[in-house]
């Protein structure tokens, strides 16, 4: 819940967490006005109530308690935390001072998906996202639901990752929609929700709700239009090199020792068209070359890449072999596999 805690000097209440009881247990809520996180913990409720206290000290105490049973009690706007051998008293504030979190206007219509499937898809695209003050529309993950196809996309303008989710994995009565969720929200979704739960997604023009049985995230959406990314993804590639993914990953890691500050590595098809050379050089460090067996369809090519971007793209695939689809040294390169047709990663070479 720490991600939704704000250090705002104008609204110091945002440093706090709201604690309240309901019929099922205890509800903990935090917000920074852009993102709100709610978690319900089961417990025996003796008397209903609510109060807000500083998150930092509460979190520090809870993390270091070893007792299985913890008692929380509100007394005179203070919270008493106690176990069999420990007691602490935290000064609280009236819950009325805590910001009201606007509800989703369209929460009755939902898209349902298993948390495992959603987090796997999100994890395969979030690596291509990066915060940008200049271009806020790419500072997050694009969600698009169209004709019962749910697609997640992210880009930082140097690389792009798109992951479609099989229609069989979702249930929805939502209308078609598109939205950009902030990178911070996407990161929290990866961390916050557990495995093998039903995740319900609801959306209105300004907010999006991600909800499981005991956890909830409400986030503002990023204004603006996501780039026409489909124009960037090559529909066909003239040259394709099939290479062992793990061997290419090892080659990139070895090459990274000789890239210095530039992060540039060269991929070059050997004269016999049966090997790919992964080459890096730095005048102050030295150079290295790693040769990998390949199967080449088309003509030889030579490309210069930021090795980190290339490595990120390889890691999101599960298959043993990947295909590098190339048209020319100054055009986007597609990384794909035959076994994962719903996932595609595109990286822009560096002009040599």
The SSE string, one letter per element, is EEEEHEEEEHEEEEEHEEEEHEEEEHEEE
For the record, the CATH architecture of the largest domain stands as Roll
Per the CATH scheme, the topology name of the largest domain is DNA Polymerase III, Chain A, domain 2
Oligomer kind: single chain
Q: State the strand order across the main sheet.
A: 13-9-10-11-24-23-22-17-20-19-18-21
How does the overall form come out from the CA principal axes?
Answer: elongated
Distance between the termini: 45 Å
Helical stretch count?
5
Top-tier CATH class of the largest domain: Alpha Beta
Helix content: 10-25%
Look at the structure and name the CATH superfamily of the largest domain.
DNA Polymerase III, subunit A, domain 2
Largest sheet, in brief, is:
12 strands, antiparallel
Unreliably modeled segments: none
The counted number of beta strands is 24
The average pLDDT score comes to 92
Bin the strand percentage: 35-45%
Please state the CA-atom Rg, rounded to the nearest Å: 25 Å
Judged by helices, strands and strand pairing, the structural class is mainly beta
Question: Topology, please?
Answer:
Layout: E1 16-21, E2 25-31, E3 35-42, E4 50-54, H1 55-64, E5 71-75, E6 78-82, E7 87-91, E8 111-114, H2 115-125, E9 140-146, E10 149-155, E11 159-165, E12 170-172, E13 177-182, H3 183-192, E14 198-203, E15 207-211, E16 215-220, E17 239-244, H4 245-255, E18 264-269, E19 275-282, E20 286-297, E21 302-306, H5 307-315, E22 321-326, E23 333-336, E24 343-347
Antiparallel strand pairs: 1-2, 1-4, 2-3, 3-16, 5-6, 6-7, 8-12, 8-14, 9-10, 9-13, 10-11, 11-24, 14-15, 15-16, 17-20, 17-22, 18-19, 18-21, 19-20, 22-23, 23-24
Helix pairs in contact: 4-5
